[in-house]
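Justification of computing resources. Each target in the renewal requires a structure prediction run like the one illustrated here; the chain below, 385 residues long, is used simply to show the kind of job we budget for.
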Amino acid sequence: MNIHEYQAKELFRKFNIPVPEGIIILSEQDINELLAKFIQEKYVVKAQIHAGGRGKAGGIKITSNKEEAKNFALSLFGKKLVTKQTGNQGRIVKKILVERGYNIKQEFYLSLTIDRENSNLIFIASASGGVNIEEVANEDESKIIKIPVSMVSGNQPFHCRLIAYRLGLKDDNAKKMMKIINNIYQLFVQYDTSQVEINPLAITDDNELLALDAKINFDDNGLFRHSEIQKMRDKDEEDELEAKAKSFDLNYVRMNGIIGCMGNGAGLAMATMDIISIYGQSPANFLDVGGNADEQRVQKALEIICSDDNVKAILVNIFGGIMQCDIIARGIVSAVNKINLNIPLVVRLSGTNAGLAKKILADAQLNIIAANNLDEAAKKIAATI
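Resulting structure tokens:
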């Protein structure tokens, strides 16, 4: 689960991670009243959406003029921001954060995330933070600092000292950075997060160290322990089909392609997407119905795939181990009849009761193209486009 920047900064304050003074505006009607009480020499007006790259998309403005700040905030409400992370559909701005602006001497990047390859946590830092951090990482990897943290022993003082030292900080600034690093770790662990990121973490001209931006992602599997975090969910920022799939316990991620995909098991679902790409087409989604899917769940999965207007054909790839292929076949038949499917559907079923499943599909006399293996299925789906 993701949250907004202003919500992440509320948690930062709770863990004594310094952030700028600011106000959150939730409606156009509140702009005049809230800004009248918020008197600063410089203002930073920031659109609140669940995506990075807001500044380059025109969603952030710095001004020393309150009237200009107000007019920009008014222009943001209801505006669609399109960034590299939103895709072409963009995000509609419904919340705006206005903060005190600062003169900046240096910007850093700092994050803590999960290193799945090594089963550790890992701090990632750079003395070249800011909006171009991705370009910095691509062009000169030596500017990126990576410090692994054992899941057993946890964050230690030497981790904090090492990061501060490699960032070139000394004296009070080094001590401030070490406190921030340790507090990020405490937040990360206490709230079952999967990423905490500050970009930029800045030294101001009056020598303050401030988190000027904040991003926190949470592990959905740990949310049941944190009712206060669940209340931060903004469903307006979530993909409608992904939210619907989650309500049926389906693992679905919408993508930008045209071939709808359904598999059982993450590995098989990803292999299905890969082979579609190998044959020159693009997957419209990742969808794992899981190993315990029943007829209704399969039907819902196909309905969700077909709700994406970009989908021009569908490939179902199921291996029946625990799951029985005949149950999948009945779900497919039921879904095709219910939604009056009018786009090509290729089905590859293998494993438990596969023979019975193929008979069910054939007897249904529907426009379903059968395939005996995944390679054949991918060739057939590509040929339909």
